[in-house]
Model the fold of this input.
Amino acid sequence: MHKYLLSAFLLMGLQVTAQVSMTVQLPPAGVLIKSQLWQVSLLSASDRPTVVQVSLRLLDAQTRQPVMSGLTPEVIIHKGITVIGANRSLVAEYEYLSPGIDRTLNGLLPVGNYIACYSLLVANDKSGSQPGEDCVPFTVEPLSPPLLNYPAHKSVVETTNPQFSWLPPAPLKAFSDLQYEFLLTEVHNGQTPESAIQQNIPVYRATRLKKNFLNYPAFAVQLDTARQYAWTVLARNQDVFSGQAEVWSFRFKGKEQQARDKGVYVRLKRDPDGAVVDCSQSIRVGYDNETADTTALCEVLDPERGNKPVFSRTMPIHRGSNQIEIPLDRNGKWEYGKIYLFSLRNSRGENWQLKFIRHKQ
Done:
């Protein structure tokens, strides 16, 4: 008889565990505060009340290191669906494993990528068959990226060493280690400011900035008058990309300096888009060499003639960033107003290319 009662008790424990299931409803993006982590639904098929708890482990998605853990109080659930997050009186207990986590009740989570792992704990379950962890990746994003402030978009600047300023992303408390990256590049004829930022090698780039302003340094490349420039700012939290400001442009007062294509090299791409770069005296390209190659075949092709080479030469290169310049001589080889294709071929058989059109200076 006692053996029968014991078997019945164990069977009841197994049934209780099997009759309670958990569904995590955490969205992949949009989570901002700790209380949003408890969007968990519990489904009970038991006719009897069941006492449960939900535990949480929050991991950094990049390092897989735990940053916080949490445990709800005991919750009595009945047959049907119970949403944990809907119970405002339910306050979880937390253990903080990272100094960057806000410890207030409704504190903001730092911007970044995380993995939330949930476990369901059923009280008085002696079966040893508690449900396993359910892990969900998600991203904490700022409500607003950085906002550019000065120089204003499409403005005319008088000083050649301007000060750039921008507003921080919001909410600022969501950043435990806010850093900025500043990018400035020249806009060529036929380019938009956005395509210039994506395609051109920066005239000036600054990283790991802590303040939301930058004075253009005197030691940097001198900026030309009457040329158009594009700039933007990227925000990072502990080296994790957290948002980019829109791209603004400006130009300087004064006469354009002649015979100057200085300092601006357009980055080659393996899959070139439809963008075409204007050139006058020379074609200048940037190439990031990830191989051990010391030379590369550089060609200028004529698409109208079946990509027949107009220029072909083996050029010396080195590992890392390379800047290559090919003069556009005046012997009639290059036609004005015609589109050409610059191509660099490395030892991997990869073709890095750029379209350009020659115009009169």
